[in-house]
Design a protein that fits this description.
alpha/beta, Rossmann fold, seven-stranded mixed β-sheet, 10 helices
Length: 253
């Protein structure tokens, strides 16, 4: 289940991609399938072990080329262990809402993105998220350890990206069918996975992800602007002044 639109991200074969806060690796795996060289970065060692194993399985099954480059790496989002201007593309999906100092994390993401590169940042959409917070205090921090620490307005997140030198490239919402699922979970208790309605809705979502039937895909598309669970912002890091000047000097008269 992908949140980022790869056409808008602009990933090209052999691009070096950072998936910051990769979690279970869904965007890292898709980046690898598309020919990117991927660094899957996260604080969770157990999840990175699973990501590494899946990278190996993808190579063994012929899903990606034998020389495909997928590197799990553990570390801190506030101190990324990479030089400036390292990555062609950066993905930060559903991670900034967990980080108290999100400005510092955004600064790091901008620092390691190459001039001319693109970043995709996804966070919970404001409307869907606010309802979750109202329904249950167990959904967010501090009661939910490691849970969400803020609710974003899309305009505020865009301003944070702009403040770090990243130019807005548009946005969209995604996963509308997941919003009612989380509202239901919050209503009965976020950890109450044995509730019959929760289990039934979960089966629906699994069916949708696996089969992709037109009826749920159409419903999701129509409802995304209204109740999308995630909002995705795309931004571009401008070329440096020096590079821009050099290009202008070499341009034909």
């Amino acid at each position: 289940m992908l949140t980022v639109n790869y056409d808008r991200l602009g990933l090209q074969k052999d691009d070096l991609v950072l998936d910051m806060g990769c979690g279970a690796g869904r965007h890292a795996f898709e980046s690898l399938r598309r020919g990117g060289r991927i660094v899957a970065f996260d604080m969770s060692h157990p999840e990175l072990v699973e990501v590494r194993n899946t990278f190996g399985a993808m190579v063994d099954s012929g899903e990606v080329a034998d020389d495909a480059t997928g590197q799990p790496m553990q570390g801190d989002a506030l101190r990324l262990p990479f030089p400036d201007n390292t990555f062609d593309r950066v993905i930060a999906s559903e991670v900034l809402e967990h980080i108290p100092d999100d400005d510092a994390a955004i600064a790091e993401l901008s620092r390691v993105l190459k001039p001319g590169g693109t970043i995709a940042v996804t966070v919970p959409a404001r409307f869907a998220e606010r309802l979750c917070w109202k329904l249950s205090e167990e959904y967010y921090a501090p009661i939910a350890v490691g849970g969400h620490v803020r609710i974003y307005k899309e305009s505020d997140l865009r301003s944070k990206l702009n403040a770090r030198g990243l130019d807005d490239q548009g946005s969209h919402k995604n996963h509308a069918l997941h919003s009612p699922y989380w509202w239901l979970k919050c209503a009965v208790g976020p950890t109450n996975d044995d509730n019959k309605l929760v289990k039934a809705y979960h089966r629906l979502l699994v069916w949708d992800i696996v089969k992709g039937p037109w009826v749920t895909r159409t419903a999701d598309k129509l409802l995304n602007p209204l109740i999308g669970k995630s909002v995705v912002l795309y931004a571009h890091k401008p070329a440096t002044v020096e590079a821009t000047s050099a290009e202008a000097a070499n341009a034909p008269a």
